[in-house]
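Quick one, T. Sequence first:
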Amino acid sequence: MADVVVKIKTTKNPRAFINSVKKDIRSVSRQATYDFSRSCAAHMRKTVSVKYPPASQAKMPPHMRTGNLRSSIYREKVADMHHRITVGAEYGVYLEYGTRNMAARPFFRPAIEIYKREFITKMKKAGRSAAVAHR
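Structure tokens:
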């Protein structure tokens, strides 16, 4: 295991500098987690809004018959920078992962994968910009 040493050269008080950078990153992180959860939930609702008939194909998002699945998708803020996306329809898990008799029709995991890249990019950019802004 290698040790990492960070030397901060600043005319300001180093502790104040670090606290200021942490505050900036926390602010951006808060917004990024909110945007991530909002975008994922909206994408999930959109992908399950295709009207039935025809029936959805295996490995494609399920088509909407009653709208119950779509209306059961919601997000909530659990804590600071902690959001939860929930699918309340009891059959959502069967659609997502499939069963012995039915192939999966994922709608949850693809949305997470799409917006995960965007979230990571925002966080990396926040870290870089906070460090540059406080030089």
